[in-house]
């Protein structure tokens, strides 16, 4: 069966510091991968998605970037965090064929001080 | 692009009663509609999904109905239990959406009172 791992579960960072969140998927090949952000009590905002190694699509302009160095690895980064980057970050995967469900990890709660 | 509206934003029901959440979508090309349940501090979990070639799907106490003509779909939870308390999200995906992107509704916070 497929599993998705995100780490760390919680992170507290000072303003201006760098960020690296990692997500890995097991049990599937060539998945689509996604990064979402969820503000407290709000819905899901798609930040990036990837359909293959090195292929990144950005959905909203922001202070963050994403990379996919391996088939089942997706990384969310920032060079300098802003207060507005606080939130709950979720990674998800889906099969590469059309109309497939996305499966989410348990998220990283990021607090910027 | 696709737009999904979800109602109500909060729903309080007595244990044992039914809960209904409704979503409308704008893109008539959408043909895949999943529902997710998110518990506090966790990622959303897929609970049921429906494709446009069927009008209704059931899984134990959960059912989803789809009306393609009216462009709306609903989640029905019967015999609610306290563990059904969570935030529920609907989503829609058009045929051939790049990267299988989903458009999510704004969520419904369900509280089941014992």
Structure annotation, total helices of chain B: 0
Largest interface: A-B, 26 and 26 residues
- Tell me, briefly, the overall form of chain A: globular
- Say how many strands of chain A there are: 11
**Averaged pLDDT of chain B, please?**
94
Q: What does the radius of gyration of chain B come to? A: 14 Å
Strand content of chain B: over 45%
Structural class of chain A: mainly beta
C-alpha geometry of chain B: globular
**Roughly how many Å is the radius of gyration of chain A?**
13 Å
Broad structural category of chain B: mainly beta
SSE string of chain B, helix = H, strand = E? EEEEEEEEEEE
Write structural notes for this entry.
The complex is a heterodimer of chains A (113) and B (114). The radius of gyration of chain A is 13 Å and the shape is globular. Chain A is mainly beta and 113 residues long. The mean pLDDT of chain A is 94. Helix content of chain A is 0%, strand content 56%. Chain A has strands at residues 3-7, 10-13, 19-26, 32-38, 45-52, 55-58, 65-70, 73-78, 87-94, 103-104, 108-112. In chain A, the strands form two sheets. In chain A, strands 2, 4, 5, 6, 9, 10 and 11 form a seven-stranded mixed β-sheet that branches. In chain A, strands 1-3-8-7 form a four-stranded antiparallel β-sheet, with no helix packed on it. Chain B is mainly beta. Chain B is 0% helix and 57% strand. Chain B is built from no helices and eleven strands. In chain B, strands 2, 4, 5, 9, 10 and 11 form a six-stranded mixed β-sheet that branches. Chain B has a five-stranded antiparallel β-sheet with strand order 1-3-8-7-6, with no helix packed on it. In chain B, β9 (86-94) and β10 form a beta hairpin. The termini of chain B are far apart. Chains A and B meet through β5, β9 and β10 of A and β4 and β5 of B.
């Amino acid at each position: 069966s497929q599993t998705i791992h995100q780490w760390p579960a919680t992170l507290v960072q000072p303003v201006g510091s760098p960020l690296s969140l990692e997500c890995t998927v097991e049990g599937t090949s060539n998945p689509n991968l996604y990064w979402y952000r969820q503000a407290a009590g709000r819905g899901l905002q798609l930040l990036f998605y990837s359909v293959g190694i090195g292929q990144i699509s950005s959905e909203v302009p922001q202070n963050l970037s994403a990379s996919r160095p391996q088939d089942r690895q997706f990384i969310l980064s920032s060079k300098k965090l802003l207060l507005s980057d606080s939130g709950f970050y979720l990674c998800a995967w889906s099969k590469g064929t059309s109309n497939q469900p996305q499966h989410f990890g348990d998220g990283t709660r990021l607090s910027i001080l | 692009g696709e737009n999904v509206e979800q109602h109500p934003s909060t729903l309080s029901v007595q244990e044992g009663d039914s809960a209904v959440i409704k979503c409308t979508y704008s893109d008539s090309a959408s043909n895949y509609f999943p529902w997710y349940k998110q518990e506090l501090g966790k990622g959303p979990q897929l609970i049921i999904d429906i494709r446009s070639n069927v009008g209704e799907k059931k899984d134990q106490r959960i059912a989803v109905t789809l009306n393609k003509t009216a462009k709306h779909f609903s989640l029905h939870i019967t015999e609610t239990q306290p563990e059904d308390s969570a935030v529920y999200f609907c989503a829609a995906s058009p045929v051939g959406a790049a990267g299988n992107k989903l458009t999510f509704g704004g969520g419904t916070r369900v509280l089941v009172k014992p």
